[in-house]
Amino acid sequence: MPGYYPRVVKPGAVTASPRIPASSRTTRTSSSVNRADHVVEAALKAVWEGNDQLVPIHPMFKEWTQDRAVDPDVAIPYHPGAIRFYKERTVWKPGMDQVQQKLLAVNP
Known about the structure:
108 residues; alpha+beta; two-stranded antiparallel sheet
Protein backbone atom coordinates (compact mmCIF):
# COMPACT_ATOMS: atom_id res chain seq x y z
CA MET A 1 0.00 0.00 0.00
CA PRO A 2 1.53 3.37 -0.95
CA GLY A 3 2.86 5.42 1.93
CA TYR A 4 3.23 2.45 4.31
CA TYR A 5 6.46 0.93 5.61
CA PRO A 6 7.34 -1.73 8.22
CA ARG A 7 7.65 -0.17 11.68
CA VAL A 8 9.75 -1.95 14.29
CA VAL A 9 8.20 -2.05 17.77
CA LYS A 10 9.43 -3.53 21.03
CA PRO A 11 8.39 -7.20 21.41
CA GLY A 12 5.20 -7.44 23.42
CA ALA A 13 4.45 -3.72 23.15
CA VAL A 14 1.71 -4.15 20.57
CA THR A 15 1.91 -7.60 19.04
CA ALA A 16 4.06 -10.73 19.08
CA SER A 17 5.43 -9.66 15.69
CA PRO A 18 8.32 -7.18 15.81
CA ARG A 19 7.00 -5.34 12.73
CA ILE A 20 3.67 -3.75 12.06
CA PRO A 21 2.56 -1.64 9.12
CA ALA A 22 2.91 2.08 9.69
CA SER A 23 2.19 5.02 7.48
CA SER A 24 4.18 8.12 6.81
CA ARG A 25 2.96 11.33 8.40
CA THR A 26 1.53 13.55 5.74
CA THR A 27 -0.30 16.81 5.72
CA ARG A 28 -3.16 16.97 3.26
CA THR A 29 -5.53 19.59 2.02
CA SER A 30 -8.53 19.45 -0.26
CA SER A 31 -7.89 20.11 -3.94
CA SER A 32 -10.99 22.31 -3.87
CA VAL A 33 -9.19 24.70 -1.49
CA ASN A 34 -6.40 26.69 -3.08
CA ARG A 35 -3.59 26.84 -0.54
CA ALA A 36 -1.09 29.59 -1.37
CA ASP A 37 2.45 28.35 -1.86
CA HIS A 38 3.76 30.52 0.99
CA VAL A 39 1.27 28.93 3.44
CA VAL A 40 2.37 25.41 2.49
CA GLU A 41 6.04 26.38 2.64
CA ALA A 42 5.61 27.99 6.09
CA ALA A 43 3.95 24.85 7.46
CA LEU A 44 6.71 22.65 6.05
CA LYS A 45 9.39 24.96 7.40
CA ALA A 46 7.88 24.74 10.89
CA VAL A 47 8.19 20.94 10.87
CA TRP A 48 11.56 20.96 9.06
CA GLU A 49 13.18 23.34 11.55
CA GLY A 50 11.17 22.61 14.69
CA ASN A 51 10.81 18.84 14.75
CA ASP A 52 12.46 18.56 18.19
CA GLN A 53 9.81 20.87 19.61
CA LEU A 54 7.04 18.75 18.07
CA VAL A 55 8.11 15.43 19.62
CA PRO A 56 6.53 16.24 23.03
CA ILE A 57 3.28 17.10 21.23
CA HIS A 58 3.13 13.82 19.29
CA PRO A 59 5.59 10.92 19.70
CA MET A 60 5.42 9.97 16.00
CA PHE A 61 7.64 12.98 15.30
CA LYS A 62 10.50 10.90 16.81
CA GLU A 63 10.38 8.78 13.66
CA TRP A 64 10.20 11.67 11.20
CA THR A 65 13.43 12.53 9.43
CA GLN A 66 14.18 15.10 6.76
CA ASP A 67 15.45 12.44 4.37
CA ARG A 68 12.04 10.69 4.55
CA ALA A 69 10.10 13.89 3.84
CA VAL A 70 9.70 12.98 0.15
CA ASP A 71 8.39 9.48 -0.54
CA PRO A 72 8.22 7.92 -4.02
CA ASP A 73 5.41 5.66 -2.75
CA VAL A 74 3.14 8.62 -2.06
CA ALA A 75 -0.51 8.16 -3.03
CA ILE A 76 -1.51 11.80 -3.64
CA PRO A 77 0.25 14.58 -5.59
CA TYR A 78 2.51 17.05 -3.85
CA HIS A 79 1.51 20.72 -3.65
CA PRO A 80 3.64 22.97 -5.93
CA GLY A 81 4.84 24.88 -2.86
CA ALA A 82 5.94 21.63 -1.24
CA ILE A 83 7.85 20.62 -4.37
CA ARG A 84 9.70 23.93 -4.41
CA PHE A 85 10.43 23.64 -0.66
CA TYR A 86 11.85 20.12 -1.05
CA LYS A 87 13.85 20.98 -4.17
CA GLU A 88 15.49 23.89 -2.33
CA ARG A 89 16.55 21.44 0.38
CA THR A 90 17.71 18.82 -2.18
CA VAL A 91 15.42 16.05 -0.91
CA TRP A 92 13.30 16.02 -4.09
CA LYS A 93 15.10 13.04 -5.65
CA PRO A 94 15.54 12.21 -9.33
CA GLY A 95 12.42 10.47 -10.55
CA MET A 96 10.03 12.36 -8.27
CA ASP A 97 8.91 14.60 -11.15
CA GLN A 98 7.72 11.45 -12.97
CA VAL A 99 5.97 10.22 -9.81
CA GLN A 100 4.24 13.60 -9.50
CA GLN A 101 3.11 13.56 -13.15
CA LYS A 102 1.60 10.07 -12.78
CA LEU A 103 -0.28 11.15 -9.64
CA LEU A 104 -1.56 14.31 -11.32
CA ALA A 105 -2.85 12.23 -14.24
CA VAL A 106 -4.98 10.22 -11.79
CA ASN A 107 -5.73 13.01 -9.28
CA PRO A 108 -5.81 16.29 -11.23
